[in-house]
# Entry
Amino acid sequence: MLYWLGELLKFQYGPFRLLSSHMVLMGVGTLLAGFLVWYFLPKWKNTLPRDRGKKLVKDGERSAGKPTGAGFWLTLIFLPVMFFCVPLSEARDAAVYICIFLAMFTGYLDDKSELPWGEWRKGACDLGIALATAWCLCWGRDVVMWLPFAKGEFTMPWQLYLPAATLLLWFTVNATNCTDGVDGLAGSLTLIALGSLAALLYGVVGYKPVADYLLIPHSAAGARWAILLFTAAGGLAGYLWYNAEPSSVLMGDAGSRMLGLLVGIGVLASGNPFLVFVVSPVVLANGGAGLCKLVLLRLLKRLGMDTAPPGGGGVPNGQHVLVRALHSVRFPLHDHCRRNLGWSNAQVLMRFMLVQAFLTPLLFILFIKIR
# Structure
């Protein structure tokens, strides 16, 4: 809205042309979303459901009774800011916003439910939303892609793009959800991911001279996606003000699922799906590896192996070495660090953030420059 307002009024008064600047729109979206979330969240948090605590999770009882599902208000605040600041060029842009809302809303229904949803129900909802989002991103058209360590670009048929993009989106949603277990952890790591992706989309993918120099396909839509991600990052920063330990409000599935979808959208908008390993390495190791462990254990069980965890009725010495190795590390990884290594919540948060903050720029150099 602001963009078109600037285009309309710049002939009446020159400075209005600044409203058409993507840099100005990024700044306005980030600051406005951050301020509105920071201001309204403490006023509205008591309308949210209460966390029931997780008895099997260390310190899980400390979260019991706190408002959860803050992703509900976070999304309802920054989505209008996105409509206000992001220039909409196609119907698919609005359709992506609807998918973001649905990712939040299904998570919120789970947060609000007296009986938590089962993993199959959650997975099916996530899969449906991921498929719808992937369709909105390609809109039935072939997609230009690029790969790390390789020059040039290639066009992927939308029939192949759709299942691959759906799988990536589903994975980022669930990996981010699994990371939500320490005050501020999922939000802080996602904030780094969103900021990194937005900078790439604005300064590289969306800026033709730099894209040409780095042999990356230029996309004029990159700047629009950057505004969207920076706006979301601003709202997330406003939420983290109240999620710092000891937190007064929790994001719940409403927040973690929505944020995971946003990261996946940013990665796919960049044209290189492997960038998910660049912007979210710790999230993937923390939550995504746990999903891989679960799949492997179930596959090994179907093959007839004893996959019972230690103390769960299995005979550890008689188990396959792969099964014992899988059980030697607890997932999500932040639980392993707290239970097995004795880290405090503050240590987990700071150390995980430091690792991601160092890995992301290093991996960017490897993936983008070495080609």
